[in-house]
C-alpha cells in the first residue's frame, strides 16, 4: 500500500505512518488487495485528504467503511463517481439536503464538490473487500483515523462534526466539544431513515448557519 497523502496532512499525522501498527496495517492491506478484489482502487485510498487540504477543513462527515460494490467507492465517504447509481444512503442524504436547503436533487453522486469547499469526507476504515461490508475493520484503520480526528480536534478550532448513526456518534469522545460543534442524528441508511431517525435533522442548513456565525462561507450542498 502506497501512502500517498496530501502534504499538509503528512505534516499533521505523518508520524502515524512510522508506528508499528501502521506497518502491520499496510502489510495486511497489500495482502488483501493481492488476494481479493478490494475497494477503492489503491490510488484513491487517501482521496479524502487529497480533495480537502488541511487548511481548508471546516466540516467533517464521518462514515464507517467504503461501499463494497463494484465501481462505487471513490475514497470519499458516502460518495460515488460520476454516472454511478446513487446507493440508498446517498439518496437519503440528497433527499434531506433537498428538503432542508432547497437544492435540486443532484444528478451526480460525486461529493468531491463538497470536499473542495472544506468538507472532509472521512471513513473510519479506508478499504474493504468486495461484497463484504466491514471486512477490513480491526486491521488498524480505526487507530489511524481516530488519530486524525483527535489531532484535528486538538490543532484546529471551530470545526463542525456531523456524526450520523451510532458508529459515528461514538467518535464524539475524541472531539473537544468546547472548541468545536458536534451535530448528531440517525444514519441515512434506509433502516434508520425509515424509522424517523434521519429526515428532518436539518444538518445542512445548521452547518451553514454555524459557518456564517464564524464568518466563513457556507457550503454549496
Automatic annotation (TrEMBL):
Active-site residue numbers: 65 (proton acceptor)
Residue ranges occupied by any Uracil-DNA glycosylase-like domain in the UniProt entry: 50-211
EC number: 3.2.2.27
Top EC class of this enzyme: hydrolase
Keyword Cytoplasm found: yes
PROSITE patterns, sorted: U_DNA_GLYCOSYLASE
Alphabetic keyword roster: Cytoplasm, DNA damage, DNA repair, Glycosidase, Hydrolase
Chief localization: cytoplasm
Gene Ontology MF terms in the entry: uracil DNA N-glycosylase activity
Compartments where located: Cytoplasm
Pfam families registered for this protein in UniProt: UDG
InterPro entries linked: UDG_fam1, Ura-DNA_Glyclase_AS, Uracil-DNA_glycosylase-like, Uracil-DNA_glycosylase-like_sf
Function of the molecule: Excises uracil residues from the DNA which can arise as a result of misincorporation of dUMP residues by DNA polymerase or due to deamination of cytosine.
Family: Belongs to the uracil-DNA glycosylase (UDG) superfamily. UNG family.
PANTHER family in the cross-refs: URACIL-DNA GLYCOSYLASE (PTHR11264)
Entry-linked NCBIfam families: PRK05254.1-1, PRK05254.1-2, PRK05254.1-4, PRK05254.1-5, ung
Protein name: Uracil-DNA glycosylase
Amino acid at each position: 500500500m502506497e501512502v500517498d497523502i496530501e502534504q499538509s496532512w503528512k505534516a499533521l499525522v505523518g508520524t502515524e505512518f512510522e508506528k508499528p501498527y501502521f506497518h502491520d496495517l499496510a502489510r495486511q492491506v497489500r495482502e488483501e488487495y493481492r488476494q481479493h478484489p478490494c475497494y477503492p482502487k489503491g490510488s484513491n485510498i487517501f482521496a479524502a485528504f487529497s480533495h480537502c487540504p488541511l487548511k481548508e477543513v471546516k466540516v467533517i462527515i464521518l462514515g464507517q467503511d467504503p461501499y463494497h460494490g463494484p465501481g462505487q467507492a471513490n475514497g470519499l465517504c458516502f460518495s460515488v463517481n460520476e454516472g454511478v447509481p446513487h446507493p440508498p444512503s446517498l439518496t437519503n442524504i440528497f433527499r434531506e439536503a433537498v428538503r432542508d436547503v432547497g437544492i435540486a436533487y443532484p444528478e451526480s453522486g460525486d461529493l468531491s464538490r463538497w470536499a473542495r469547499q472544506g468538507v472532509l469526507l472521512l471513513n473510519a476504515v479506508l478499504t474493504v473487500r468486495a461484497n463484504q461490508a466491514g471486512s477490513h475493520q480491526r486491521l488498524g484503520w480505526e487507530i489511524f483515523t481516530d488519530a486524525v480526528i483527535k489531532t484535528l480536534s486538538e490543532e484546529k478550532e471551530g470545526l463542525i462534526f456531523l456524526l450520523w448513526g451510532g458508529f459515528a456518534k461514538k467518535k464524539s469522545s475524541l472531539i473537544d466539544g468546547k472548541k468545536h460543534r458536534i451535530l448528531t442524528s440517525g444514519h441515512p441508511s434506509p433502516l434508520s431513515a425509515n424509522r424517523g431517525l434521519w429526515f428532518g435533522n436539518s444538518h445542512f442548513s445548521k452547518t451553514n448557519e454555524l459557518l456564517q456565525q464564524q464568518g466563513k462561507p457556507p457550503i454549496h450542498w
